Amino acid sequence: MRRGTFREGTVDYAAVGATHAPDLMQYPPERSIPAEEPWRLGSGEERFRTAGDALLSWTAQRAAGLQLTDVRPASSPGYAGVSFDAEGNPIAPSHAEVEPRYDEDGTPWAGPGMTLKLHGRVGGMRADAELRVISVTEQTHRIGFVLGTVDGSVVSGEESFDIEWNDADEVWFTVRAFDRPNSFLYRTVPYLVKRRRRELFARYLRAISPLYATPV
């Protein structure tokens, strides 16, 4: 089924949480281009924890050549983010609040309700955007977060980043996204949206996976 129209706060798209829907690739939000890539990172709890910490501390974005600025916490102190069921529908958050964590330069790790700006270029194309952290997941076998566009991007939509440690002791990194072209160029040449997304996915993998050069 096509995604619903739940909207969270200041994001500039309607289908909040659609990156968690199992049928994203078959039924993306209207006028959006979906994308999904899973990569095996290795196995074991240590690999899972290391990859999860790297993810929540913005390693994927920074190593992709993007600069984080104007990182702001949720507007309400009690904001706990949005959680989603298996169909991508918003539900009450299922995780407990945790103490804020910071990297070595004082930037807070990803937290629900946080807003930030990204600046940079990907494959020669502008990748500036204002984003909101829609949700953060920290569970025994899954760590991840969802970013949604707020304003100022050549595309609008959502990215989800998930590290999963499965029952086979394998650790997988999965990125899912949907992009709706905003700029005239991207609306006219949708291929550029796909090329931009492929380059971003490749950079995220290089950042998080120690096995990128020698996949297992």
TL;DR of this structure?
With 216 residues, the chain is an alpha+beta fold. The chain has 4 helices and 11 strands.
Instruction: Please give the number of β-strands.
Output: 11
What is the approximate shape?
A: globular
Give the helix tally.
4
User: How large a portion of the residues is in β-strands, by DSSP E?
Assistant: 25-35%
Residue windows where pLDDT falls under 50 for at least 5 positions:
1-8
Q: Determine the fraction of residues in helical runs and give it as a percent range.
A: 10-25%
Radius of gyration: 16 Å
| Quaternary class | single chain
General description of the model:
The chain is 19% helix and 34% strand. It has 216 residues and is of the alpha+beta class. The strands form three sheets. A seven-stranded antiparallel sheet has the order 1-11-10-9-8-5-2. Strands 3-4 form a two-stranded antiparallel ribbon. A hairpin with a 5-residue loop joins strand 3 (83-84) and strand 4 (90-91).
Features:
216 residues; alpha+beta; 7-stranded antiparallel sheet; two-stranded antiparallel sheet; 34% strand; disordered N terminus
Itemize the secondary structure elements and their pairings:
Blueprint: E1 33-43, H1 45-56, H2 59-63, E2 67-72, E3 83-84, E4 90-91, E5 115-119, E6 121-122, E7 125-126, E8 129-138, E9 142-151, E10 155-165, E11 170-181, H3 184-188, H4 191-208
Antiparallel strand pairs: 1-11, 2-5, 3-4, 5-8, 6-7, 8-9, 9-10, 10-11
